[in-house]
Structures
1.
Amino acid sequence: MSTREGKVVFVKQDPVRPPPEIVVNLGSLHGVTPRTQFIIYALGDEIRDPETGESLGALEILKGRGRAKHIQEQMTTVVPITTKKQRRVIRNPLYTMGGEVVEEVEAEEEFERSLEVGDRVRMQ
């Protein structure tokens, strides 16, 4: 693995929701900054070119995308990227005209799949 690739070394467990944060073994010594984003993935089956039989490598199974929350020298706490916008309609019987207000809020995205210690990460 290069200095831009690492592994998940800790997963905060929550019995109700997917993990809200993980820890990876890449930190400031590896070039992680507050703007660093990560792809978290596992390696799947080896894929071969059907014509040549040549190995194209292992399929990367995307588990989520995250951003640096807290950076230390050799590790970083990573949280899901917050990008999803939701429209929320608030109905209030006290409003006489229409009775509702629409507001846009950012909702925290969760990691797409369950994450495990040993999953791979790549800095972007």
2.
Amino acid sequence: MKNYEFEPMEAANTAKHLLTGVLVGGLIGATTMWLFAPHSGEENRNDLLDRASELRDRTTETVKDTVSQVKSRAGSLRGEVKGKAGDLKSIGQDLLVEQLDRAAEALEAAKKAVKEY
């Protein structure tokens, strides 16, 4: 019986191929549209420049929004981590005090035993 081993494709590799396909397909479609457009070359160039400018502006806005969201989320995560760290510190201090009290009680009991001996 043959033993087949399948290696899962990495998500990054798949996304890279998908993005490459989308970009190449988009370029081919844009070039075809441009070549068969019913406008003059100058009108096509101006239209292409306008669309490129709009795309640049939308991309810039999207990047700014994404960066803003990431910063906001990072700030909230930072606050959560600080809160949890404070809670853990408090718990650790309480446990330490409890252990020191037990040690002090044990020491007193040992002192008492030595005096009685």
